[in-house]
Amino acid sequence: MGVTELGKLINESRQEIDLAKLNGRIISIDAYNALYQFLASIRQPDGTPLMDSRGRVTSHLNGLLYRTINLLENGIKPVYVFDGKPPQLKQTEIERRRQRKEEEAHAAEAAAKAGNTEEARKHSQRAIFITDEMVNDSKELLTAMGLPWVQAPGEGEAEAAFMAERGKAWAAGSQDYDSLLFGAPRLVRNLTVTGKRKLPNKREYVDVKPELIELDKVLRELGLRDRIQLIDLAVLIGTDYNPDGVPGVGPQRALKLIKEYGSIDRVAKSVGLEKFPMDPIAIREYFMKPDVIEVGELRFNKPDERTIMDLLVRRHDFSEDRVKGAIERLRKSMDRTGGSSTLDAFM
DNA sequence: CGGGGAGA
DNA sequence: TCTCCCCGG
């Protein structure tokens, strides 16, 4: 997902950041990215996610509730940005992912039947898909919590970056680096309070700290002229729109090629255009001009306790005591930062 | 992932 | 008070 390989080239321009430094700041969070993380990590050892009595997955609601409250308690204003219609460019990749998830779901089932819980967990984590119902419940929860959220016309990541570029948000929040390609001046990764992440294939956990990545610093570190060159670099490595990148070209060689030739079209002429199943210039243009909208006034309101209880406790079998405790924390954090106020008040 | 109880 | 670890739905 996203341009994960780009991270291998980024060192000095990646800085750990204290949560306190984010106090009072708005972060436009890629909702899909966040929900995906919750669905991947909030699981039992055998890979079973949290579910209500009707078998509906609830891991995303659990994660969304507690993480959002944690952010608010630290004075951070999260604004979740939901995906709209994916661009045409992404269609083949979407179909490819759907097929792979189907296979992984079968593999998970088989492993579970064979009693291999580790395998089952691994495969079921790769089989995650986010349903409309999950998205709708998440939006309902956020609204009931008194938080604004944004419906992007296209990619949520693009809209979140646009909000950061326009100063609607201080930074974009995501695990992917795509926000930088979409023009976010700042990207915050690992936006968690008690960051613990499971190491792949191991039982160990490592501490993860929030990190701030600034676009201009990245360009300087890599020695690139502008964002267009960064996009060109990413297209060589592989993006959501050309996931394989150019076979045989890794991050290091891609950087060298962009510096040597200056742009992706010149690189393409050199390495051969047939190495690009998708038109690299079309991908670049999409990153430069994605489908985004100006967001209207965003408002933080008092939490609606009734609706939160109805959604989580009555409909999804959360424990009444736990949710009450969460609402209490939510109320306190909202009071401290001003329960009902416009987004502009925090700028 | 994150809460909170157990045990030190 | 702190760390570890189980459990949430």
From TrEMBL:
One of its GO terms (biological process) is DNA replication, removal of RNA primer. SMART domains: HhH2, XPGI, XPGN. Its EC number is 3.1.-.-. Residues 94-107 have a biased composition (Basic and acidic residues). Residues 1-104 form the XPG N-terminal domain. Binds 2 magnesium ions per subunit. They probably participate in the reaction catalyzed by the enzyme. May bind an additional third magnesium ion after substrate binding. Pfam families: XPG_I, XPG_N. Mg(2+) 2 binds at D176, D178, D240. Structure-specific nuclease with 5'-flap endonuclease and 5'-3' exonuclease activities involved in DNA replication and repair. During DNA replication, cleaves the 5'-overhanging flap structure that is generated by displacement synthesis when DNA polymerase encounters the 5'-end of a downstream Okazaki fragment. Binds the unpaired 3'-DNA end and kinks the DNA to facilitate 5' cleavage specificity. Cleaves one nucleotide into the double-stranded DNA from the junction in flap DNA, leaving a nick for ligation. Also involved in the base excision repair (BER) pathway. This is Flap endonuclease 1. The gene is fen.
